[in-house]
Amino acid sequence: MTTTDKLTMHPVTAPLKGRVSPPGSKSITNRALLLAGLARGTSRLTGALKSDDTRYMAEALRAMGVTVEEPDATTFVVTGTGELKAPAAPLFLGNAGTATRFLTAAVASVDGTVVVDGDEHMRKRPIGPLVVALRSLGIAADAPTGCPPVTVKGNGHFGTGRVEIDANLSSQYVSALLMAAPLAPKGANRPVTIALSGAEIGARGYVDLTLDAMRAFGARVEQLDAANWKVEPTGYTATDFHIEPDASAATYLWGAEVLTGGAIDIGTPAAAFTQPDARAHAVISAFPHMPAVIDGSQMQDAIPTIAVLAAFNETPVRFVGISNLRVKECDRIRALSTGLNNIRAGLATEEGDDLLVASDPGLAGQHLPAEIDTFADHRIAMSFALAGLKIDGITILDPACVGKTYPQYWDALASLGVGFDRS
Ligand SMILES: O=C(O)C1=C[C@@H](OP(=O)(O)O)[C@@H](O)[C@H](O)C1
Ligand SMILES: C=C(OP(=O)(O)O)C(=O)O
User: Which CATH class is domain 6-23+245-422?
Assistant: First the structure.
């Protein structure tokens, strides 16, 4: 599809029925790309996501001497030498949080200086706690604004010993340290211990994805207790690896199904996903009787989907445990309240970091023209598209921002019979 500035949805006239498979998981693809790039030898990654976020990771690895081939639309063939080389220019990672955080730690293993940078949105997303943790290991890292760009002066290996990390703002800091930890100095026989400091981590399920991917690439990592992990200095071993579909992408299809009373076969049962957002399936399946209070802490990326559905629920919904939605691609609590109130004043209220969504099943079928500012955030675009399935007049601004994780999103909706005008 060509890039357009606006997309106005046509409400559906019949339940949505058909088969649409979500693309590969962004989280798992970017973990597998990195670990394959750090390994010596060739790894074949199948079922992978090809989108802005994974392209940035692949390009960064290429810039550091890794061969990344793309034989088809869902496969990466990655050949590494067992070490990353210093890139000739700063690594530009757009607004890909995973690529930015994971590489910030991994480039400590480069022998030379690496600048990790992103776009204007990424330059507002905090990375200070990760930089502090790297410095405590003796790695020269600097991020003067507390956000990218980060300059890392690597000395050819990661550190050893114990490192503390405050992961309250992002679980990606823990994943970043875990994945870099096997890259200890040659001959090191001491493990790295990663210890949580501060408040409880956001979405623990992402750390579990990290451990699974690390073990698949030969790492020896042990969770000692809820706050401590021990990682042996093994490096990584190339392997073939299959990536499951993206659970966050699946939430839009589950949402479209319940909102229209349809039947959309996404090809993967909800219980088969290992990603945290699969938890959203149970909540979405309860629509239009979703609970009065929903804790988003363990399924953060699904909250925009559920918040838009909540407007059509039988009863209001309060979202709690979502404070770090304020530091995602945009301030998602603000973007959701702005968009919902734009559809109808009073639909959403922010109370501190809670979001209250007033419900009105009678919204369906109404003509309520609203231009939804997506703040360049794929999840805001994809979730408000659901409102446009039931309300006449919903226009999504900058619809191409879905390219961050689901470039085929609009085509997928069209394949189910959804209509829209582009302008
Ligand atoms: O580790 C990951 O793959 C991710 C962790 C989450 O971010 P935070 O850890 O910053 O909450 C999530 O929102 C993001 O889309 C992907
Ligand atoms: C928060 C997200 O992405 P990231 O942190 O990887 O940029 C997301 O995809 O919703």
Answer: alpha beta
